[in-house]
Amino acid sequence: xxxxxxxxxxxxxxxxxxxxxxxxxxxxxxxxxxxxxxxxxxxxxxxxxxxxxxxxxxxxxxxxxxxxxxxxxxxxx
Length: 77
Known about the structure:
The chain crosses the membrane at residues 12-32, 38-64. Residues 1-71 form the Inner membrane protein YgaP-like transmembrane domain. InterPro entries: YgaP-like_TM. By secondary structure, the chain is mainly α. The chain has one domain (7-68). It has three helices and no strands. Helix 1 runs antiparallel to helix 2. The longest helix is centred in the first third of the chain and has 23 residues, at 7-29. It starts with 6 loop residues before the first helix and ends in a 13-residue tail after the last helix.
């Protein structure tokens, strides 16, 4: 698969992945009251966001034909 996640998209995915990952850990620790089912859901979403940011490839983007790399001006893929 070719890269289809641009630089800004990577930053957003990394930030959201970090926030959701911390939220999952805090929920598992019981520091705030949320349904326990949310902790693993937050963790999985966090991992998906962080992996897609690290690899620069998003499977969903490939399926629907989105490429945010083309939004970057002059940067290589």
